Every structure is written in structure tokens, then in C-alpha cells.
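Hi L., both proteins are below.
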Amino acid sequence: MKYLAALSIILLFLNFLPGCSPQKPQPADQEMERFIEELIAKMTLEEKIGQMTLFAGQMDQTGALIQADFEEDVKLGRVGAIFNVYGEKNVRRLQESAINNTRLKIPLLFGLDVIHGYRTIFPVPLAESASWDIELIEKSARIAAREASAEGLNWTFAPMCDISRDPRWGRVVEGAGEDPFLASAIARARVRGFQGDDLSDKTTIAACVKHFAAYGAPQAGRDYHSVDMSERTLREVYLPPYQAAVDEGALTIMTAFNDLNGIPATANKFLLTQILREEWGFNGFVVTDYTSIHELVPHGVASGELDASEISVKAGVDMDMQAGYFQAALAHLVNLGAVDENLINDAVSRILKVKYQLGLFEDPFRYCSPEREQNDLMTPEHLEIAREMARKSMVLLKNENAVLPLRKDLKTIAVIGPLADSRRDMLGSWAATGDWTKAVTLLDGLKEKLPATQIINAKGCDIEADSKEHFEGAISAAKKADVVILALGEAAWMSGEAASRTDLGLPGVQQELAEALHKTGKPIVVVLMNGRPLAINWIDENIPAILEAWFPGTMGGHAIADVLFGDYNPSGKLPMTFPRNVGQIPIFYSEKNTGRPYDPESKFTTQYLDSPNDPLYVFGHGLSYATFDYSDITLGADKISETETLTVSILVSNTGNYDGEEVVQLYLHDPLASVARPVRELKGFRKVFIQAGKSVEVTFSLDANDLAFYRQDMTFGPEKGEYRIFIGGNSLADKSAVFRLE
């Protein structure tokens, strides 16, 4: 098999893969180019290296900037960007220091991890992805940008584009799940939301695509751990979302912590130069993750700061986050002749262009507006959209005997569980400057929804403690109620960075609490709040109704109440498979068939002795209070050429009693190819609203681009032959049709 040697040259001429063409060209800005060129010509080597240095600030609980060591560096022009500093006064203070004290008056960039909202906190990204609502996801990022820019920020370290098929890894909460097609659409939406269509707009901020690359596939699901995979898997599964974000115009890229096939991402020229710049045409700048140049030393590929700095800058890194290695080592490396100053010039040019595009040279204080800081945070409009986003993110996992929606005339409701009134946990991880004291809990939402209903609250147990001392109080509350709403799940800190888990069951004694309440015979609705797929077999087997609410954000309690009582019909679909147990991981819908496909009648096929193969809940799963029926598929033709487009249509009918939205999903299978192909791959989806008793025709278009893959010789494109389409409401869609590519 011919592998890496000619691959980069070949790929430059391939245009089939969605999002795999070079970054869309921007109109030449001769004025910007001339300005940057003249500015660099005036800069000393030390001033250039200063632009390549990013340091973190520290805020106290009142929102004031704590004196930091880097402030003297700012005055000397030895820093180009600051992160974790926000607020009009704080940003203005440091920007004034840079403008008033440095020779060339180059403005600073100000960044923050604005991941799922800034002050108004939206559901965690994995939850938003469950909405499959691309327009609304873009809108939530737009609001986050508006709020962040109102407090002086102009750069966010998002979107996270890491595909992950291992829920042990805590950072699945920040991504879009397991599928590259869905994740690519979401990556584009987030970039559009942050950056808008006019970077000179003061309400836009620069996006930073992270973590490049394949950070979501660490061995053993352990954060920061090694990643080892074939180039085919890398290119077909893990790279497309990053590339989609680059194609959408993302201004910056962040390197990953992991090594990929033995080479740390921050030292990986194959990733940062060959793929990112030469193949994709990325023209923004590359920043490391926190101290990751320093981490080349414990990785074992660099001996110290000189070695690590040389390796990383030659690999394609433009800016060093927090390690301070570039500041300490690059000038010496240039003077030694180990690093060409032109390499420094190129990096600085890319950084300065981003500052120029954001309008900072025209007005360094354009993001410092006391009026906007006063008026643009947590507005009624923002809060209402956060509530809508939370509702649409929720997934109805089970609803046996139509327990949900609940009646509003219930006399007594018991609201039980450690997450029923946990304000801190509503926001989830990476909640930027969100104020947890203003979060609406489930208990809050129910009390406002049902002012005439007696609502009894009992915690029952803590999230992770082993004590059962409060079980009796919870059981007593349940016995007095018409229905029990049981809020279970993880603490917010249990997902996110450095939050890997080997046990995906409910922490502590939460399942035992559910078992004790189940014995009362009262109808129970479980509301899950968590940042990853959980293994909840007992809950699924014994509880009639389960709503996956994730960590739903500032307005989460209102949104949960809206769904439970039918003011909103749930429409979310899982972006990530829920396993039965950890032993099934990694588990995902787009597996390959193997030479011995599963056969329950034959032992010697791909299966477990002690567990079914199938997951607890499949990718794309999500119920509704409505019921949707699918007609047979109609094809515009039974065969197409590589230059033709195939029209695929299906009639979807709402046969239930509720109006509702359905995510219609199209999957593709190539049954005979030069390499084994997945049993199904998502190639299209539409979220459609259908009134009760009505039908909607949903149409998709497929062409050779949708059929392309990395063939046996690692060239990219489609192969002639038969293809099968599946359409339905989840990845087990059973309506199918066949066509040929000729």
C-alpha cells in the first residue's frame, strides 16, 4: 500500500470530501498586507517574539484583576495576547499599558474559554449538539460572542471539534459527539456564530478551533493520553470537523495535548504544516494549548526550552500559551542560526493580521464599552433563547405508557434527588463568567410552572457520597405525592478537562435511592443531568420515563419544566451512543461489519459472552410525545454518474396527538468497496416541524462527494457500484433503497 510519501501532493488536487478543499479564499486586502509588512520591518526580534507570547491573567472573586508578573512584560512589548482577563476596566487597563508604553503601540488580543455562553450560559456543547438544530446552535454562539465582546474580549478558545467515541473521556462534554458529519455542521455553525460575517463588527470575536488533532481518542479514555490510529481513520473520522471550521473561516487553531502516533501535536509538522497549511490552506495563526510547548519535555521529544521551542516553531506553532518558552528561547535560537527569522516573521504576520481583521489597529479599545457591558449581558432575549436551546437539547430516552407529559392538575409532586435544587451544577463545566446563583434549578422551574401544586422537595442523597441517611425522608415525600420527579446524574466538575471516569454508572448511592423509591409503587420520572453518556441499565429497565437534560445552563430549570409538562414537545436526538457498560467502549454506530458479523445463533461471531453487542441507546435516538411514520423512500433515479446528483425523498407523517419536531436522518452504506466500509454513515439530516395529523416531504441530495472515501491506495474519491440508503429517526433507520454509481 502506498502510504504517506505522495499523499499530500495527491490531496491538493482532490475536491470530493466535504470541507476538504483549501480554506475558502479571502479577498486580497492590499492595505492590510502593506500595513503588516511595514510594521514587521520596524520590529526588533524581541518585539516579534513578544507577539508570539500569550500569558494568563488572574481575577479575584469581585472581578478585579490581580497584579500579575506579566504586566511589566506588557509594558516592554514582550506579550502579544492575554487570556483569563475580562471586564471593561481590566481590559482597558492592560490595553492602555500596551499602547501607552510600547514603542510600536501594537494592541493586545484578549481571550477566554467561552465554550457554551459567556454570562448567559447555554447547555453544554454535547447537549446543544443533541438538538441537531444548526441554526439555533449558531445563534447561541452569536449571543456568547455578543456578551463576551461586551466585556472586552475578542477571542474565544472554541469551538472544540474533537470527535470522541469514548465517554470515559471527560471532555466529550465540550464536543459534538461521535459522528464527523454532524460535528462538521456544528463546527461551521459555531464559527459563524462567533465570527459573524463581518469581523469589524464589535460584537464578533475570533474563533479558535481545538484541539488539533484527534485529542478525542486517547488510550483508555484518559485525558492528555496518547492517540494511535491509522491515517485512514484520522482523515475520515477525526479531521473533517476541524477542516469544516477552517473552511468556514476560523481565524485561529489550537494544538492538542496528546501525541499522535508518537509525535506530540505541538511538535507535529505533518498536522500543523502539511495538512493544516499546505492541504487546507489555513492562513490564520496556531496557538498551543496551556504550557504544551513545555510538555514536549515530559513527552520525551525535547530536552529543554531551547529544543522544545525550536521543534514547535518549525512544526508550525505561531503562539506559545503560558509556557514562556518562546519568550525565553527564540531570540537565542535565531542568533544561533537554528531558527530562520523569516519563520518568526511569518508567524508574527499571521498574528498581526488577526488583530487587523478585528479592527484593533484602528481602535485598540473598540471592545471596551461601559455601555455595552451594562446593557448586553443576560438580556431577556438572551435568556429566552437559552431556554429554547435547553428545551431543544433534551432527549426523551424512554416514555413507557406515555407517562409524559405530566398533567398540570396534579395535586402533589415529590421532587427528589441531589440535582433537583443544585444551582451550581446547572451550568456544567466551562461556564465562563456565568453566575451560578442566577441559575434556575429544576425545583425553581416547577414552582413557577405550577404555583397551585404542592411540591415537596427531598434531596435523598448527595451526588457522590455513600450515605443513605436521607433516604427515609425521600421515601416519605414520595409516598405523599401523585408522581415523583427524580433528578440524578453527575456533578458539573465530573466532566470536562481532567475528568475521566472508569465507572459510567450513577455516582454514589443514587441508583440505590432510585431503587428505594421504586418500591413505593409511585410513578417516577427520572431527569438526568450529566456531561457524558452514562450506563444506566437498572434505570432503563425499571423507570417508565427518562429525560436526558444534560447540564442545561442558566435557564435549565424552566426548560425541564416546559418539557415535563408538555409546553414543549422534546425533539433532541443523541449525538453519542449510550453504552450498557464500560466494557463495550469504544462503541459507536458506524462500526465495520467484520468477516464474522454478529449472529446470535453462532458463538464464533463478533460478540461478548456476558453482554449484548448493542448499546443501551443508539446514536440518533430520541423520543417525542408525537409519533412519526416514514413512507418508503423515493429516488430520483436508480443510478447516477460522478457528475450527477441524486434526489432522495421520503414522506414523514405525524400520527400522534401532539405537534412536534422530528430529526429525519439519512445514512449510507457501501456494501462492496476496496476497503471495508462502515455499516452506516450519516450523510444528511433535516429537523422538521410537523403538526399532528399532517405530513411533510423531506428531500435530500446526494452526489459523488457524499460517496467518497480513502480507497485502498489512500487516494480519495468514490468507487463505482451499488450503495444503500437508510432513512429514519435514528441510526437503526429501517426504510431503505438502493442505487448505483456508474
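That was the first. Here is the second:
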Amino acid sequence: MKLLLLFVVLAVLSTAFGSYIESSVWPKPAVFSKGASVVPVATFEFKTLGLSESDSTVPITLSAAYSRYNSMIFNHKSKTGDDNIARVAKVNVAVDDYSEAYPQLETDESYTLDIPAESTGEIYITAKTVYGALRGIESLSQLVVFDMDVKGFVISESPIHIEDKPRYAHRGLLLDTSRHFEPISSLKSTIDALSYAKFNVLHWHVVDTQSFPFESSTYPRLWMGSYSKNERYTQEDIQELVEYGRMRGVKIMIEFDMPGHAASWCAGYPEICPSMNCKQPLNPASNLTFPLITSLLTECTGNKVGGGLFPYSLLHLGGDEVSYSCWETSASIKAWETENGLSGSEATYEYFVDKAAGITRNQARTPVQWVEVFEHFGSKLDKNTIVHVWKEKETLNSIVSAGYKALLSNQDSWYLDHLDITWDQMYLNEPTDGLQEGSDPNLIVGGETCMWGETVDPSDVGSTIWPRAAAVSERLWTPKEQIDTVDVATNRLETFRCLLNQRQIAAAPVTNKVGRFAPREPGSCYVQRR
């Protein structure tokens, strides 16, 4: 019996190691061909083609990535004195446009990657932009493994050829830092993990009813709504974080949810709320409310394309779950409605969301608003609005049929705070399923998985997000016809989860039936009991 058990254990370990050295990239590339050769490598020597050898001419986005990835990939001490395992591999990076301008919705992230079968050959990454090159470097990094038998790094199954580009332009994770504060170090770790999974947007739900940790330079009392003075984001913090994301190809889309979910605004400026006993929605009758909103958004946008604290062209205005009770019990608001010819709270809600969206458009940004705005006002919305679907997925039909662009985050499949949603349920959520004939799928500009913060803080945010969010990243990146079956994807996701762990991302076991649970028993990272 003991001998039989030993053979079982060895078989499991062999299977685990086999899946470890197999060529695997997450998310799955559009085109991926491979051979049968094993190429040893000790480190990468990156060369940026078309530029001089001087480090000063290489875009910092790339030079920093070269250093970062070499350190991250080659994380074992190799055996020395063996030419077969001590080769410096040359990686040639060719980019059409070396501009380091802030990436936008239309930024090209396509790349090709070619790895030869011969140990003397050179690796080539080609891309249209530096951000596409980053995606190619990430794929290359996932193909390098440490072979314990020879104590050296190898790329197995060479030659390898990849042609790749994202299916959707906007591929994001919403992170809520209002319900529990996440320090900058935690946000940076999240951005790191997003880049590994080829997400390109951190949707920062920075404030809500519970707290306002964001520093405003023009209305400095706003962050009196923070939980404490130690739980705030200075503008210097924000600038650093935005650049940290850009260097990894991750944009930050800021959200100020309004007029609901805004009670924390009142701590510093009580006059913008109906009353201190009934704080939200924000008070449209106050002479301060819209000047404050205009000024706050101006800090974010700089009133120009690519300007301000958040250069991304999309800006989220929320607009969801608005209760009218505080408006309806305020005599001053009712009087203001009468003076402005508004027939009650529904008309006031429409006025408010339209006014906020107009301010945003005037500042060279495209407003994103939650689906309730479309549910209430439909085709009365300005066409330059992106509707963010979080409720029933079926709403996509009416949105795209009406000619509006949409983001998908349907809560029954892509909400990470719903701990009973397993990774495979997220993986099987195809955005175009259920669209009526004649609906334009190209109006779906992308999607997001959402990490609402009621039950997460730095102690568990990583294991709640990962690896389930990676299922969404592949669905948003990989062509629909190339998506794997769940059985095939499981082994690949287990490998990616272990890669995240190795890179200090606290990803939970893939096969969990409840999100973020720790492993149930001893075993390999790569092979877990179902």
C-alpha cells in the first residue's frame, strides 16, 4: 500500500512538473505555434532596434521593462560552468512608434514574438507601439522556466511563433478603495498583476458613501471624508501611481460616483448635500455643487486630451442606485425644481447626470455611466456616452441596438465580491452571447471584472481577485474562436496562478468553490484536488 502511494505521489509530481515546463501563455494568444526543441538561456540581452546603443535613447518604458523582467524571470541561481545552460539570449525589440504618450482606448497593443529552435539564434519582438512591446515581453517571460534537472533556465517547445492582439480595447478591473482603504503599495501590486494578465485598465472607484480619501487641490476639505488622516491619497501619490501604471501599459480610469453614493463629500462641504441628516444624492439646488464638480474633474483632466491627473480619455461618473428620498423631503430642492421647470425627482436625476456628463465632455473626456442612466433615459442620452452594464446582461441588446457603446461587468458572472462565482463561470461569460441579430457587437468596447471593497482590504484583496480575474482577462483578450474549453483552460490557469504566486501575487487556488479560500491540504501548486 505504501509503495502504491509512493508511485501515485511521483506520478502527480511528474504531471505537475510536466505542466510547468510546457509552453504556456496567459491569456491565450491569437496565433501560437511551437516545435519540439529546448533552448537554454541564462539571461536576456535586449536590443531596441532602430535606436542607438545609448540607454538614453531607449524609451524608459522599455528600458525599465528590460531590467524588471530580467530580474523577475531569472529568479534561480543557475549552475555555473556549463555552456549549455549559461547562454545570454539576444532579444531584438522593434517598434514602429517609440512614443511614450499616455495610452488611450485606440492604442495598438498587438505584437509578434519569434523564438528560434537553435541556441545561437536571436529572439524577435515586433510591435506597433511600446505598449504592444510590453505585451510581447510578458508573453516571452511566461515561456521561460527553470529546469531543475540541469539547474538552468530553458524555453521548451521551440521554435515558437506568436501573433497576438487584444480582442477588446478596454480590459479592466474595478477596485473600490472607499469601503476599505488600499495603500499605494497594494494598488501597485494590483497593477503589476494586471499587467501580467494583459489587462490594460484599473478602474479606480476611489470614493463612495463611506469615505473620500482623494486629495483635491481646489476643494481641500473634501478629504475630510476619509476614514483617517493616514488613509488618504495625496496628489503626489496619484501622479506616481498613474505613471507606475503607464510604465506597465495599465491606464487608470477614475470614478467619482454621482449623484448617489456621495455622502462622504458632505464631511468637508455640507452645503452640497440635502442636509447632514439626509446626505445623498448630492444637492443640485446648491450654488456650490456643480462648480465643485467642475473643479474636481478639471484637476483630473487638465481640460485637455491626455492632461490632468488622469490622462485616460474615459472618465466614470457612476450614476447608479440613486434614491430620491432626500430630494423629496427637502423643501429647498422642491422649490428649485419648480423654479427650473423640473417635474419631480426623475427629471432632477436626468438633469444631474446630463449636467455632469456635459462637464466631462467639455473637458475632453468621454463619460462612462452605470446602466441605470440608460434604463431611466434611454435614447435621450448623448451618444458620446459609454454605458456600463452591471446588472442583467440582456440590457446589452437595447444599449447597442440604440447605438450606444457599452462596457460589460454583469454581476452574476464578473463580480469578484460574489465569492461563490467560480473562475469557470467567469470564463464562460462570452460578451456577445445573447445579442440579437442586427446588434453591432463592435459597440462593446470591452469589459471589467469588479472588486467591490466591503469585505476586502490589503490582507485579502489579492487572493480575492486572483486567479478568478485572469479568466476575464483571457475572455477579453483572446479571439472568441480561440477560447479553450474549461478542461483545457484549467491546467493553463493553474500554471498562471503559480506564476502569480512566484511573482508575489497572493492568488488563491484555481479549483476553489468559494473565492479567496486558502489551500485545503498539502500538495503541489500545479495539481490540486478538485
